[in-house]
Write a structure and sequence with these properties.
The protein is an all-alpha fold. The protein has four helices and no strands.
Length: about 140
């Protein structure tokens, strides 16, 4: 008998996988505890009367740039809710007289732009050139 003909393998060779890239502090490490302590301190500092908003915002940006952020999934979930509530609460501080005043001045501006647009239009009719795709 003759030697059997070798059949090439149809399976691809196993790929070498790289270890996953870890972004942020490792769970349970000293860096995590430092990051959490700094974030809690930042939140508490934001509640102090003398601390300006730009100071706490700057501290949060610095923590993010240094990679000292934790609670990413919670922050993403609750930041959306906090922004929505902040916008609603901001609306409570606006006087209705100012809202009406802003609305009237905006409406007057819109009417003025429309009147000027129609006043400056050319008096001669605009020529119409039909576009022939198949000539």
């Amino acid at each position: 008998m003759s030697d059997p003909i070798p059949i090439p393998s149809t399976t691809a060779p196993a790929r070498r996988t790289e270890p996953p890239v870890v972004t942020g502090p490792a769970p349970g490490g000293a860096r995590v505890w430092l990051a959490r302590a700094l974030m809690v301190a930042g939140v508490l500092a934001a509640l102090i009367r003398g601390v300006e908003a730009w100071m706490t915002l700057g501290a949060g940006i610095a923590l993010a740039l240094l990679g000292l952020t934790t609670w990413g999934s919670y922050a993403k979930k609750y930041s959306r809710l906090m922004i929505q509530c902040s916008i609603v609460l901001l609306g409570f501080w606006i006087d209705l007289d100012r809202v009406v005043q802003a609305g009237l001045s905006g409406a007057a501006f819109s009417v003025g732009v429309i009147v000027v647009t129609f006043a400056l239009r050319p008096t001669a009719p605009i020529p119409y050139w039909p576009i022939h795709l198949h000539s």
